[in-house]
Design goal:
This protein is α/β, with parallel strands linked by helices. It folds into two domains: 102 residues, ATPase, nucleotide binding domain (Nucleotidyltransferase, domain 5), CATH 3.30.420; 149 residues, ATPase, nucleotide binding domain (Nucleotidyltransferase, domain 5), CATH 3.30.420. It has eight helices and ten strands. It binds zinc ion (ZN). The site of zinc ion has 7 residues, from helix 4.
Length: 289
Amino acid sequence: MIGGIEAGGTKFVLAVGPTPTGIAARHVIPTRTPAETLAEAMEWFAGQASIEALGIASFGPVDLDLASPTWGHITRTPKPGWSDCDLAGHFARGLGVPVGFDTDVNGAAIAEAAHGAGRGVSSLAYVTVGTGIGGGLVLNGQPVHGAAHPEMGHVFVRRAVDDTDFAGHCPIHGDCLEGLASGPAIIARWGQLLSHLPPDHPAHERIAGYLAQLCYSLFAMTAAEVVVLGGGVTKAPGLLDRVREGAGALSNDYLPGGARHRIEAPGLGENSGLTGALMLAEAARAARS
Ligand code: ZN
Protein backbone atom coordinates (compact mmCIF):
# COMPACT_ATOMS: atom_id res chain seq x y z
CA MET A 1 0.00 0.00 0.00
CA ILE A 2 1.00 3.59 -0.58
CA GLY A 3 -0.33 6.79 0.94
CA GLY A 4 -1.09 10.21 -0.48
CA ILE A 5 -1.85 13.67 0.83
CA GLU A 6 -3.28 16.50 -1.22
CA ALA A 7 -2.39 19.35 1.12
CA GLY A 8 -4.54 22.38 0.42
CA GLY A 9 -5.05 25.72 2.09
CA THR A 10 -8.59 24.83 3.18
CA LYS A 11 -8.48 21.03 3.41
CA PHE A 12 -6.11 18.07 3.47
CA VAL A 13 -7.28 15.03 1.49
CA LEU A 14 -5.67 11.78 2.64
CA ALA A 15 -5.73 8.40 0.94
CA VAL A 16 -4.21 4.95 0.94
CA GLY A 17 -4.37 2.42 -1.85
CA PRO A 18 -2.48 -0.27 -3.71
CA THR A 19 -1.93 1.95 -6.80
CA PRO A 20 -2.35 5.65 -7.64
CA THR A 21 -5.71 5.05 -9.30
CA GLY A 22 -6.90 2.45 -6.79
CA ILE A 23 -7.86 4.53 -3.76
CA ALA A 24 -8.89 2.11 -1.00
CA ALA A 25 -9.64 4.64 1.75
CA ARG A 26 -9.95 8.40 1.66
CA HIS A 27 -10.41 11.02 4.35
CA VAL A 28 -10.79 14.80 4.37
CA ILE A 29 -9.72 17.07 7.24
CA PRO A 30 -9.95 20.86 7.44
CA THR A 31 -6.66 22.78 7.32
CA ARG A 32 -6.14 24.45 10.70
CA THR A 33 -2.79 25.16 12.34
CA PRO A 34 0.10 22.94 11.21
CA ALA A 35 0.26 21.24 14.63
CA GLU A 36 -3.45 20.34 14.62
CA THR A 37 -3.64 19.40 10.96
CA LEU A 38 -0.51 17.26 10.85
CA ALA A 39 -1.42 15.46 14.08
CA GLU A 40 -4.88 14.65 12.75
CA ALA A 41 -3.47 13.41 9.45
CA MET A 42 -0.90 11.24 11.24
CA GLU A 43 -3.62 9.76 13.42
CA TRP A 44 -5.66 8.79 10.36
CA PHE A 45 -2.70 7.08 8.67
CA ALA A 46 -1.96 5.22 11.90
CA GLY A 47 -5.44 3.66 11.69
CA GLN A 48 -4.94 2.44 8.11
CA ALA A 49 -3.10 -0.51 6.62
CA SER A 50 0.63 0.24 6.84
CA ILE A 51 2.09 2.02 3.84
CA GLU A 52 5.48 1.64 2.17
CA ALA A 53 5.75 5.22 0.94
CA LEU A 54 3.90 8.53 1.09
CA GLY A 55 3.42 11.22 -1.53
CA ILE A 56 2.50 14.81 -0.74
CA ALA A 57 1.11 17.25 -3.31
CA SER A 58 1.10 20.53 -1.42
CA PHE A 59 -0.09 24.09 -1.67
CA GLY A 60 2.83 26.45 -2.04
CA PRO A 61 5.17 28.00 -2.25
CA VAL A 62 7.31 24.97 -1.44
CA ASP A 63 10.98 23.97 -1.63
CA LEU A 64 11.47 21.23 -4.26
CA ASP A 65 15.27 21.37 -4.42
CA LEU A 66 16.47 17.91 -3.34
CA ALA A 67 19.87 19.37 -2.39
CA SER A 68 18.33 22.01 -0.13
CA PRO A 69 18.19 21.60 3.67
CA THR A 70 14.61 22.84 3.52
CA TRP A 71 13.44 20.44 0.79
CA GLY A 72 9.84 19.43 1.46
CA HIS A 73 9.07 22.57 3.41
CA ILE A 74 6.33 25.06 2.71
CA THR A 75 8.37 28.25 2.39
CA ARG A 76 7.02 31.78 2.71
CA THR A 77 3.22 31.75 2.70
CA PRO A 78 0.70 34.36 3.83
CA LYS A 79 -1.25 31.50 5.45
CA PRO A 80 -0.78 32.07 9.20
CA GLY A 81 1.55 29.58 10.90
CA TRP A 82 2.45 27.62 7.79
CA SER A 83 5.61 29.44 6.70
CA ASP A 84 8.69 27.17 7.01
CA CYS A 85 6.55 24.12 7.87
CA ASP A 86 8.53 20.92 7.29
CA LEU A 87 5.68 18.96 5.75
CA ALA A 88 7.70 16.14 4.16
CA GLY A 89 10.00 15.72 7.16
CA HIS A 90 7.12 15.52 9.60
CA PHE A 91 5.59 12.52 7.82
CA ALA A 92 8.91 10.88 6.92
CA ARG A 93 9.83 10.83 10.62
CA GLY A 94 6.34 10.03 11.89
CA LEU A 95 5.58 7.20 9.47
CA GLY A 96 9.14 6.00 8.87
CA VAL A 97 8.64 5.73 5.10
CA PRO A 98 10.15 7.48 2.05
CA VAL A 99 8.24 10.61 1.07
CA GLY A 100 7.74 12.11 -2.39
CA PHE A 101 6.90 15.79 -2.55
CA ASP A 102 5.74 18.30 -5.15
CA THR A 103 3.25 21.12 -5.57
CA ASP A 104 -0.45 20.29 -5.62
CA VAL A 105 -0.67 21.44 -9.23
CA ASN A 106 2.43 19.57 -10.40
CA GLY A 107 0.86 16.52 -8.72
CA ALA A 108 -2.38 17.12 -10.61
CA ALA A 109 -0.40 17.61 -13.82
CA ILE A 110 1.51 14.30 -13.58
CA ALA A 111 -1.75 12.51 -12.73
CA GLU A 112 -3.71 14.06 -15.59
CA ALA A 113 -0.83 13.31 -17.98
CA ALA A 114 -0.61 9.66 -16.91
CA HIS A 115 -4.20 8.74 -16.11
CA GLY A 116 -6.52 11.64 -16.98
CA ALA A 117 -7.33 14.07 -19.76
CA GLY A 118 -3.78 13.88 -21.14
CA ARG A 119 -3.29 10.13 -21.33
CA GLY A 120 -0.82 9.45 -24.14
CA VAL A 121 0.64 12.96 -24.37
CA SER A 122 4.14 13.91 -23.24
CA SER A 123 3.50 17.51 -22.20
CA LEU A 124 0.62 18.98 -20.25
CA ALA A 125 -0.19 21.96 -18.05
CA TYR A 126 -2.69 21.74 -15.21
CA VAL A 127 -4.21 25.06 -14.16
CA THR A 128 -6.56 25.49 -11.23
CA VAL A 129 -8.76 28.57 -11.06
CA GLY A 130 -10.38 28.90 -7.66
CA THR A 131 -9.37 30.73 -4.48
CA GLY A 132 -6.20 31.50 -6.39
CA ILE A 133 -4.80 30.54 -9.76
CA GLY A 134 -1.95 28.05 -9.91
CA GLY A 135 -0.43 25.83 -12.51
CA GLY A 136 1.76 22.76 -12.81
CA LEU A 137 3.66 21.71 -15.89
CA VAL A 138 4.78 18.33 -17.19
CA LEU A 139 7.26 18.53 -20.07
CA ASN A 140 8.45 15.36 -21.78
CA GLY A 141 6.89 13.34 -18.98
CA GLN A 142 8.60 15.20 -16.10
CA PRO A 143 7.15 17.82 -13.76
CA VAL A 144 8.95 21.15 -14.10
CA HIS A 145 10.68 22.49 -10.97
CA GLY A 146 13.39 24.80 -12.28
CA ALA A 147 14.22 27.68 -9.96
CA ALA A 148 11.34 26.60 -7.68
CA HIS A 149 8.12 25.73 -9.49
CA PRO A 150 5.80 27.50 -11.95
CA GLU A 151 3.50 30.24 -10.61
CA MET A 152 1.04 30.54 -13.45
CA GLY A 153 -1.50 32.75 -11.72
CA HIS A 154 0.79 35.71 -11.23
CA VAL A 155 1.33 36.49 -14.89
CA PHE A 156 0.11 39.49 -16.82
CA VAL A 157 -2.53 39.36 -19.49
CA ARG A 158 -3.57 42.08 -21.89
CA ARG A 159 -6.55 43.93 -20.44
CA ALA A 160 -9.54 44.23 -22.72
CA VAL A 161 -9.75 47.81 -24.02
CA ASP A 162 -13.14 48.39 -22.38
CA ASP A 163 -12.04 46.77 -19.08
CA THR A 164 -11.02 49.86 -17.16
CA ASP A 165 -13.14 49.91 -14.00
CA PHE A 166 -11.38 47.26 -11.86
CA ALA A 167 -7.91 47.65 -10.37
CA GLY A 168 -7.48 43.94 -9.75
CA HIS A 169 -7.54 41.88 -6.57
CA CYS A 170 -3.98 40.55 -6.15
CA PRO A 171 -2.37 42.15 -3.07
CA ILE A 172 1.04 41.88 -4.74
CA HIS A 173 0.39 42.77 -8.38
CA GLY A 174 -3.11 44.20 -8.65
CA ASP A 175 -4.25 43.09 -12.08
CA CYS A 176 -2.20 39.96 -12.69
CA LEU A 177 -4.27 37.03 -13.97
CA GLU A 178 -5.07 35.88 -10.42
CA GLY A 179 -6.07 39.45 -9.58
CA LEU A 180 -8.52 39.45 -12.49
CA ALA A 181 -9.89 35.92 -12.81
CA SER A 182 -9.66 34.06 -9.48
CA GLY A 183 -12.82 33.36 -7.48
CA PRO A 184 -12.14 36.16 -4.95
CA ALA A 185 -11.45 38.63 -7.79
CA ILE A 186 -14.76 37.72 -9.43
CA ILE A 187 -16.62 38.15 -6.14
CA ALA A 188 -14.85 41.45 -5.41
CA ARG A 189 -15.89 42.69 -8.81
CA TRP A 190 -19.38 41.32 -9.39
CA GLY A 191 -20.45 40.20 -5.90
CA GLN A 192 -21.08 36.58 -6.90
CA LEU A 193 -19.39 33.39 -8.02
CA LEU A 194 -19.15 33.14 -11.80
CA SER A 195 -21.46 30.11 -11.84
CA HIS A 196 -24.14 32.17 -10.03
CA LEU A 197 -24.12 35.01 -12.55
CA PRO A 198 -26.69 34.75 -15.39
CA PRO A 199 -25.37 33.11 -18.58
CA ASP A 200 -25.57 36.37 -20.54
CA HIS A 201 -23.59 38.31 -17.90
CA PRO A 202 -20.48 39.94 -19.42
CA ALA A 203 -18.32 38.39 -16.67
CA HIS A 204 -18.33 35.06 -18.53
CA GLU A 205 -16.71 36.46 -21.68
CA ARG A 206 -14.30 38.59 -19.68
CA ILE A 207 -13.01 35.74 -17.49
CA ALA A 208 -12.90 33.32 -20.42
CA GLY A 209 -10.93 35.89 -22.42
CA TYR A 210 -8.27 36.21 -19.75
CA LEU A 211 -7.99 32.44 -19.24
CA ALA A 212 -7.80 31.97 -23.01
CA GLN A 213 -4.74 34.21 -23.04
CA LEU A 214 -3.06 32.00 -20.45
CA CYS A 215 -3.91 28.83 -22.39
CA TYR A 216 -2.68 30.27 -25.68
CA SER A 217 0.54 31.47 -24.00
CA LEU A 218 1.12 28.04 -22.47
CA PHE A 219 0.69 26.39 -25.86
CA ALA A 220 2.99 28.93 -27.48
CA MET A 221 5.71 28.91 -24.81
CA THR A 222 5.81 25.24 -23.82
CA ALA A 223 4.27 23.40 -26.80
CA ALA A 224 2.14 21.50 -24.25
CA GLU A 225 -0.45 19.40 -25.99
CA VAL A 226 -3.08 19.72 -23.30
CA VAL A 227 -4.03 22.41 -20.82
CA VAL A 228 -6.31 20.96 -18.14
CA LEU A 229 -8.48 23.61 -16.48
CA GLY A 230 -9.63 22.66 -12.98
CA GLY A 231 -10.90 24.51 -9.92
CA GLY A 232 -14.27 25.96 -8.99
CA VAL A 233 -14.34 28.89 -11.41
CA THR A 234 -13.89 26.59 -14.42
CA LYS A 235 -17.13 24.75 -13.58
CA ALA A 236 -19.23 27.75 -14.60
CA PRO A 237 -21.50 26.52 -17.41
CA GLY A 238 -20.05 27.17 -20.86
CA LEU A 239 -16.74 28.53 -19.59
CA LEU A 240 -14.52 25.86 -21.10
CA ASP A 241 -16.06 26.30 -24.55
CA ARG A 242 -15.59 30.07 -24.32
CA VAL A 243 -11.94 29.57 -23.34
CA ARG A 244 -11.39 27.14 -26.24
CA GLU A 245 -12.96 29.61 -28.64
CA GLY A 246 -10.90 32.48 -27.24
CA ALA A 247 -7.62 30.58 -27.40
CA GLY A 248 -8.40 29.53 -30.96
CA ALA A 249 -9.07 33.11 -31.96
CA LEU A 250 -5.79 34.24 -30.38
CA SER A 251 -3.86 31.58 -32.26
CA ASN A 252 -5.56 32.49 -35.55
CA ASP A 253 -4.32 29.14 -36.90
CA TYR A 254 -0.75 30.22 -36.27
CA LEU A 255 0.53 27.65 -33.75
CA PRO A 256 2.28 24.59 -35.13
CA GLY A 257 0.56 21.54 -33.72
CA GLY A 258 -2.88 22.98 -34.48
CA ALA A 259 -5.58 20.64 -33.21
CA ARG A 260 -3.05 18.71 -31.11
CA HIS A 261 -3.41 21.57 -28.61
CA ARG A 262 -6.44 20.86 -26.45
CA ILE A 263 -8.12 22.53 -23.47
CA GLU A 264 -9.84 19.98 -21.26
CA ALA A 265 -11.64 19.54 -17.94
CA PRO A 266 -9.81 17.27 -15.47
CA GLY A 267 -10.20 13.64 -16.55
CA LEU A 268 -9.79 12.54 -12.92
CA GLY A 269 -12.50 14.88 -11.61
CA GLU A 270 -11.74 15.92 -8.04
CA ASN A 271 -8.95 13.33 -7.70
CA SER A 272 -6.22 14.84 -9.89
CA GLY A 273 -4.09 16.13 -7.01
CA LEU A 274 -4.65 13.09 -4.81
CA THR A 275 -3.78 10.69 -7.64
CA GLY A 276 -0.65 12.76 -8.23
CA ALA A 277 0.25 12.45 -4.56
CA LEU A 278 -0.04 8.67 -4.80
CA MET A 279 2.14 8.71 -7.93
CA LEU A 280 4.76 10.65 -5.93
CA ALA A 281 4.56 7.91 -3.30
CA GLU A 282 5.04 5.24 -5.95
CA ALA A 283 8.11 7.09 -7.26
CA ALA A 284 9.52 7.50 -3.73
CA ARG A 285 9.07 3.78 -3.10
CA ALA A 286 10.80 2.90 -6.39
CA ALA A 287 13.68 5.28 -5.63
CA ARG A 288 14.20 3.64 -2.24
CA SER A 289 14.24 0.04 -3.48
ZN1 ZN B 1 -0.38 38.49 -8.51
